[in-house]
Design goal:
Order of helices and strands: EHHEHEHEHEEEEHEHEEHEHEHEHEEEHE
Strand order of the largest sheet: 2-1-3-8-7-6
Oligomer: single chain
Amino acid sequence: MMRVEMLSTGDEVLHGQIVDTNAAWLADVLFQQGLPMTSRSTVGDAMTSLVDTLLARSHEADVLIVNGGLGPTSDDLSAQAAAKACGIGLVMQQAWLEKIETWFASRGRTMAPSNRKQAEIPANAEMLDNPVGTACGFALQLNRCWMFFTPGVPSEFKIMVEQQIIPRLKSKFALPAPPLCLRLTTFGRGESDLAAELEPLVLPEGVVMGYRTSMPVIEIKLTGPASQQVAMEQIWQQIRLQLAECTIFEGTEGLPALLARELTAREFYLTISEQFTAGLLNWQLAAAGVPLSAAEILPHQNETLEALVARTKALATRQHTQLALSVGALEQDEVSVALHTPEATWGQRVKFTHGRHNQETRQKVVAMMAMNMLRRWLYGSEVSTGHGWIDVLETVKN
């Protein structure tokens, strides 16, 4: 089996000063191509460490994707380290240098001398195009390993992987069929509770069940070889039935995107009023393209659930929208949420059962609860429902 590895470079990554989102993205892309990432490591901005790591991985990995260290500053050492590991020098790519100079000139800027190093790659390397940045990438063979060197800027890294690296891997290697991965996301039940219900299921050979918690949701993932597609689909139907009450979407679409699709198809507009969530609900829905008529953020105010329900109904009438969502204030671990629809207006008052979650997490939970109320109404389910770690204290419908 091919060993496909990633090496992230930079002191800021090594010491946790930035989150390495490139690694998570790459792992998912490789998985979809039938090339699960075998391992991932991180090394700082030290020449000796870089060279030693490249040499060590060159005897173990079939493919190594090196991310970062192609910038113009003194701590960008990837090209020099690669050349040193190969025992060769750097060569200036004149065409790329001219492209960098043109890039700066087109923006009315003078290129700094330090940017010249971004056009230098090891003498035995093949240059990789970067259509959105000034650092070219490169690929080379070191011992048994085919190494790709990429910029750390996410937009540049991703386009280079998609346009330069994946096609080369497909042409060089006979890639296996991508594994099947079935996903659904739940809201309102804990991981141990879900596992207790699903673990007794007998999975087909080579198929594994995974759980990924990202507060306030939990993703269930069934992964297996393409040869087990029929058996996986059969067990997946059972999983879907068992988790139907708490499932908020399937695949990777996301709940805001699902709501955007449904409301657009039905030509519904939504009005939002927020207190405790402080604009989070509006931001999530607007970013997904949900058709919004208006949104307001109100200061903290004490009001009963009945008052919130009445205010939500009046808000929809005032804005001439079919739908309205309101989030009230947090008072003594309690918060109310109301949904107005053409059919009726619902409200529920809930209480956080323990204090281990900070305010940001609670805001995410309440925003998800509000969106889920709308989803449940759209699909004909009971709007007010339990939420596992949250107690429903009171419900209203009028």
